[in-house]
Write a structure and sequence with these properties.
By secondary structure, the protein is an alpha+beta fold. It has 4 helices and 6 strands.
């Protein structure tokens, strides 16, 4: 008899249980819905941010690649210019050593002309032959841009002349070339052999 009133209380008030349980369920559902909406909004933003980051990374890689291409092109151009310069110098100065050896022959022809007795009629044909040979030799050398340095009466130039001795000469300005002991030569503007000169004090 004492237990039935308790059971009756539970059955007689059916709204007590659901009323207590329905309110928390409603709050949890609202929170879950809000969380779901936030998750959906976050999920919609994450791909956009990832895409923007990927675009920025690709743009940076593209800029680096373009810079490397420009550097490679500039280096290739420099290499090509150096190669062209080397080829040009090889064409211009490839005969430098050969021309240096020929200068000895020119010097001997000039000495032969200086030592020959021009008053001797018997030697005149020989002297004329030496002179013609010397002139022909110089003409051939000139075709290959080999030019003679004969600075008599000019100011002394240490880049082209080699002073062998200095003498006093009141009729000349100081550092003037008085005599040339051995003529110099240039090949395409480059000094091949300096002129050996006598300079005034």
């Amino acid at each position: 008899m004492g237990e039935k009133p308790a059971e009756f209380d539970q059955e007689s008030n059916p709204e007590a249980g659901p009323a207590e349980t329905s309110e928390p369920v409603t709050e949890q559902g609202a929170e879950a819905a809000a969380a779901e909406r936030e998750g959906e909004s976050g999920a919609s933003n994450d791909p956009l941010e990832a895409l923007q980051a990927e675009i920025a990374s690709l743009q940076e890689q593209l800029a680096d690649s373009q810079e490397q291409v420009m550097r490679a092109a500039a280096e290739a151009q420099n290499v090509r210019r150096r190669a062209e310069k080397d080829v040009e110098n090889a064409h211009k100065f490839g005969l430098e050593k050969f021309c240096s050896e020929l200068l000895v022959v020119v010097d001997n022809l000039e000495r032969a002309q200086e030592q020959a007795d021009k008053d001797d009629e018997a030697l005149r044909p020989l002297i004329e032959g030496i002179e013609l040979t010397h002139k022909s030799f110089l003409d051939v050398l000139a075709k290959f841009s080999l030019e003679r340095v004969d600075p008599v009466g000019e100011p002394f130039d240490p880049q082209l002349h080699q002073a062998m001795t200095m003498v006093e000469n009141p009729d000349s300005e100081p550092n003037t070339v008085l005599d040339v002991m051995q003529k110099g030569y240039t090949l395409h503007g480059r000094l091949l052999r300096p002129a050996m000169v006598v300079v005034s004090k």
